[in-house]
Amino acid sequence: MTSRMDRLRVAVGRWAAKAAERRAEAERGSGAAHRSDGVDPELSNTEAGRAQAEAEAGEAADGSAYVPPPPQYAPAIAAKPEPSAAVPWGVRVAAEAGWRLLVLAGVIWVLMKVVSTISLVIIAFSAGLLITALLQPTVARLRRIGLGRGLATAITFIGGFVVMGLVGWFVVWQVMENLDTLTDKVQDGIQELKNWALNGPFHVSEDQINEIAQNLSDWIGDNSKELTSAGIEGVTVILEFLSGALLAMFVTLFLLYDGRRIWEWTLKFVPAAAREGVAGAGPRAWATLTGYVRGTVIVALIDAIFIGIGLYLLNVPMAVPLAVFIFLFAFIPIIGAVVSGALAVVVALVTDGIVTALLALAVVLAVQQIESHILQPFILGRLVRVHPLAVVLGVTGGSLIAGIPGAVVAVPLVAVTNTVVGYLKGYAQKQTLGRLREAAPEPAGAAAGSGSAAPGPEQPAPPGNGAAQE
Question: N or C: which end of the chain has fewer CB within 10 A?
């Protein structure tokens, strides 16, 4: 009995020792887990379990599932960059520039729509501005001899428009007077052209010529409605022309009489920071416009006189009206000279034959070459010198936007813009240099040696009360 009790006691002791060892190993494992989870290792197993349960309950209370931390052997995963940082730098710059260009294109499109809607007002104002630039020096001369502003303006305005009206009347009168003669000569020229086509080197048959004439007649009959509508549109254009001419006359009158006050009123809309520079650029722009208009009138007058004399000596009909057309078309650079010269050559061809037409072409080309290489550089000079490429692009763009009036206004607009941009650039450089000099410390003895010296030649004089600002 005693031996059985001893054996039972020994077995219980062994089991208790093994249980203690398992409990110690469990405590060491739970302690390591508690340290990785942020739980105090000094807590007992029960307290550690309670703390972990509270942490899980707290995570669940926030509405998100409890996620255990990754094990120590898990690889580190880098965070994803922002989407804007993932786009290449060049693509980002292109996108930034692209949407700004789209906004700018939209603004230009809206501006073009506005301009096309009020094109009559813009063209009339531009014409009035050019006429004012032509007549304003006369007002200044009359005021210098003692006439008042109103009387000088009235005399110049009435005299200028009377002269322009007489020129227009003379052209119409000459055309009507020579219309019958011109019609007869045109018919004779067409007959001579027909005979030349029959007997010339091309050996055109009379049936082919009759077929061409029949096709032309059929085309006119088939397109009679279009021609009629074109005639009605022509009447509308005439009415618009008369309305624009009347508006241009009013613009010219008020600019001649009160141009300086209108300019000073316009300056009030310019921001104060840029007002001084714009005020200095205005007289220079006006001087450029005045010089361009006066120089163009002189060059056009010389062209018209010499080409008209050449056509008169060649016995070309309507030499004087053709000279007037050459004078008017000279205000359209490049295109005007080509059109007016071609018109004179065609009239000479259909009235007096191919020999007279070739002689007329030689006269036109000779005078235009003298104009391009001698007259324009000498008369216009550096004041309104514009690169030929700018002239071609300006005339093309102006004609596409507003037709013939746009082509007339394009070159003076380019010249004025060139003058204004050049002045504002120089003005900004002088302002920057002045601020740098003010910020720089004065050298020793400079204050004692500096007196009330006169401004140097590089300093721009303030705009005076010259003729350009009358």
Answer: N
